[in-house]
Specification:
With 526 residues, the chain is α/β, with parallel strands linked by helices. The chain is 37% helix and 20% strand.
Length: 526
């Protein structure tokens, strides 16, 4: 359909407000909105903090509500929801599934059947790409939509509450997202998550939202960024948000065009909101882009649901949302691929353990593995770190290296050598032409290190400190120290473009257990 097609004619669903008071007319000045934001933040965050201090209680409430609604569905009848009295009953009847195993139910919805996974039919299919499954269609229902919208609201309000800063509300904001264009799969509107959410920004905030709808519909990511640069340069930009690898493309274009740092171009820019990847490997480079102090706010949104957000400056981790339509389960990552791995509730987890995240939600997802792994920093309130992907690891020799470890090792090494990176990925070299096997790190630097051998040695030491199995393999002469392979500037960008995954919510894999990704990267070696 044409980009200019009115969304309201496709689906007359009431917009969910970014703030809880829907009576604020959009004609109010931004100064008044800024003034109101602080008492609203105090009220809203008080509720969230009460819930976070009693996570088991609210998770049980969510569980009971989900089972009650699930009884009305085809899935619930097939899995005998009428006989589920507690979590043990649920585990006995509902296995853990990934998208491929869920796909037959999605196909029924596509064919027009209702009451399949959740009462009625979904409002949307969120279209996303999977490593194994190809294109995935994740349902979003009327009941689950507030999770995506209100969680973003809560994250912003929490930031205002803890910092007292609300000046960013007076300027223009931008979220670097996929196209908001929608089409129908059967009778269900379908689009990217970021595009779907774009339609739910309330009217009184749309005048501050950028880019224009027409520009946001541009499919070619490079053309889209060029158009966004032209639209934003004359504006009072105060907030930027998006996945770091794609936001940096915009920042680089602004800096090249103006010859100035971002804070010089946009002196009122004060908040950078991000998610999707760990920010730490990019932090030094972004601080160079900024050229001044900018606060950051981390979110953990997924197509399957909004999971957590940063709620503090000092305490590490992201606050897990325990009363937002999702009942969580956790499987120790090291046992995930066993025939009958243990499934734990939020009251059974321990800090410092890597867990595969399983969700059950009012979107109609049941025992669904979203593919992420998390680690609890604290239990009350429940704060987590995202540690990687359950299928994205290196264990060619039993080392089971995960994303959290390679990202932290890279952070330590680049800080020690005062370097900045654009992107990197890691894979094993099991059958080298000569010598011992090794881990190969493909790295695109802003400026190449003057002493790559010294950098590689420190990176290898940091990796050995993070993973004892890797350290033992090095000491036992099973592996030789890692090898750093330089990628020329723009290499990762060109690779993602050729893969058809440039921009939006796509991101390069951080690590793989084979060489299917890095073998393609060979074209961009220095």
């Amino acid at each position: 359909m044409e980009c200019e097609t009115n969304f309201r004619t496709l689906y007359p669903y009431t917009l969910i407000p970014l703030y809880p008071y829907t009576l604020i007319p959009y004609t109010f000045s931004m100064s008044l909105l800024t003034l109101l934001s602080r008492p609203v933040a105090t009220y809203s965050i008080g509720k969230i903090e009460r819930q976070s201090n009693h996570p088991s209680f609210y998770q049980k409430k969510i569980f009971n509500r989900l089972i009650r609604e699930g009884k009305k569905t085809k899935f619930g009848k097939e899995h005998n929801f009428n006989f589920i009295k507690n979590y043990e009953d649920f585990k006995a009847r509902v296995p853990v599934r990934d998208y491929e195993e869920f796909k037959p139910y999605i196909e029924l919805i596509k064919q027009g059947e209702s009451n399949v996974l959740w009462p009625g039919v979904p409002l949307y299919f969120c279209k996303t790409s999977g490593t194994v499954s190809g294109v995935k269609y994740i349902p979003i229902t009327k009941d689950s939509m507030p999770n995506h919208i209100n969680s973003t609201r809560s994250a912003i309000l929490h930031y205002i509450h803890r910092t007292g800063k609300s000046g960013f509300l007076k300027g223009k904001w931008i979220f670097f997202s996929g196209s908001p264009e929608m089409y129908k799969t059967g009778s269900v509107l379908t689009g990217r998550l970021s595009g779907i959410v774009n339609h739910h920004v309330p009217a009184y905030l749309r005048t501050n939202q950028m880019p224009s709808y027409k520009t946001n519909c541009i499919e070619d990511w490079e053309q889209k960024i060029d158009a966004i640069v032209e639209e934003t340069l004359p504006r009072r930009m105060t907030l930027f948000s998006g996945i770091p690898p794609w936001v940096q493309m915009y920042f680089e274009k602004v800096i090249r065009k103006t010859g100035k740092k971002i804070k010089e171009v946009f002196p009122h820019f004060s908040l950078f909101v991000y998610g999707g990847v760990s920010f730490e490997p990019y932090r030094k480079k972004f601080e160079e882009y900024f050229g001044g102090k900018v606060d950051t706010l981390e979110l953990y949104p997924a197509s399957e649901g909004f999971i957590a957000y940063q709620d503090a400056e000092i305490e590490k981790g992201l606050l897990m949302l325990v009363n937002s339509g999702i009942f969580y389960e956790f499987i120790p990552a090291e046992k995930f691929f066993q025939p009958n791995p243990p499934r734990l509730t939020i009251e059974e987890v321990k800090t410092g353990v890597n867990y595969a995240l399983i969700i059950n939600s009012n979107a109609g997802l049941w025992g669904y593995s979203i593919g992420d792994t998390v680690k609890f920093i604290s239990q009350t309130p429940p704060r987590i770190q995202v540690t990687g992907r359950i299928k994205h690891f290196i264990s060619a020799f039993g080392e089971h290296v995960i994303a959290e470890e390679v990202e932290k090792a890279m952070e330590l090494a680049i800080n020690k050598h005062n370097l900045k990176i654009t992107e990197f990925t890691v894979a094993p070299q099991v059958n080298p032409a000569e010598g011992l096997p090794y881990h190969e790190w493909f790295v695109e630097f802003s400026e190449h290190p003057s002493d790559i051998s010294s950098f590689a040695m420190d990176l290898n030491q940091a990796m050995a400190d993070k993973n004892i199995y890797y350290r033992d393999l090095i000491k036992g002469n099973i592996l030789k120290p890692l090898v750093v392979t330089l990628i020329r500037k723009g290499g990762f960008l060109e690779f993602m473009k050729e893969e058809g995954k440039l921009g939006g919510q796509n991101k390069p894999p951080r690590l793989s257990n084979d060489r299917s990704v890095v073998d393609k990267m060979g074209r961009w070696k220095v």
